[in-house]
């Protein structure tokens, strides 16, 4: 059961354009050994808003007028921990394609029909909760939207009663909000954060972390270090890690280009591997994580076998012999 307590808290078809020469190859190019190299296609052509015409719902008509949240509340979810809700108990959500610093909403048009915005004003904080988390952002149409911790707040059209979280994870970009505006997750909002206070759940699909020994290295959406294999090649694009190798070195799955921070965009394409797995590349080099890394910040794969190295934002192997 859910226990309640008061608290405060588009990628379009034009994106699938000519990236086929980004790695010095044409679609269907053969490698020197005759093995077909996958076409360099943009990763995840979906627009990230969810299913059903890209927005996660089949709602029609115009977006409803924004309604305020009223007295904010928090309910306890066994799966998600503390989840932020409005005065009616409806779950509030945040969108990964928005920004909190500065606050900005990127959900407009049809998106706002499926994800009705929460109007600014009228939201009240419960005793013991910092009211400064409550704010507002002016949307493109001039209306004011509620923000929590800088993140614009939304409801989901398919949530019909208190405690519904049908919008959780839709499109890989929509998540229930925690009381501080971050993504709801067990243990979120407590003192135990990730390295340097960063919660992996709030990271982009690929971003950059400053490692005290290695300098700037790429990490995935969970904060796990990303690696390159020196036996791979980028021109032509080939992988030497197959079979059992992938158990230790899982591929980084395709990431949308606009879901990255600080990463080189040139050569940021999907590699269609001979084994049928789609793999993300940076500067056309296939990238991986390491099964021996157990938490964000680990770099246990660095230098393994003299062939595996963390990846720089430009796709280069950090610390590899010249």
From TrEMBL:
GO BP terms in the entry: alkane catabolic process
Listed Gly residues bias regions: 47-59
InterPro entries, A to Z: Lipoprotein_repeat, SCO0930-like
Keyword Signal: yes
Pfam families tied to this protein: Lipoprotein_15 (PF03640)
Keywords associated with the record: Lipoprotein, Signal
Signal peptide (residue range): 1-24
Residue ranges of the region described as Disordered: 27-62, 182-205, 299-322
Taxonomy, superkingdom: Bacteria
NCBIfam families for this protein: SCO0930_lipo
PANTHER family: BLL4220 PROTEIN
Record-given protein name: Lipoprotein
